[in-house]
Amino acid sequence: MGPFEMVVALAAIGCGTGIVCTFLGTVGAAFRGRAGKENQSVRGEIAELRDEIRQLRQQNNDLILTLDTSLQRLERRMLPPDERSSLGTGTTHSTAGAGSVDLAARR
Known about the structure:
about 0% strand; about 110 residues; mainly alpha
């Protein structure tokens, strides 16, 4: 192999390597760009789901408080009339809510 053929072979190898590197860089950038957009959309969906979970928890807490209040009212109605009038004399239980009756202490 003469010097001229060696130069031509090295130039061909260099050009081929450059073309392959450019192609791989372009393909890699396309995948990174697509992954970035998908990442952003997934993050947005996660934020929406967190907000929805927060709203559902708030609704759940509100429903529990409503149920607790209704049960307390029913418990008061079940008491005899003379005990209902004496509810304000310190027979409330502070952890169950304002104005609730501690029926376990009465039994």
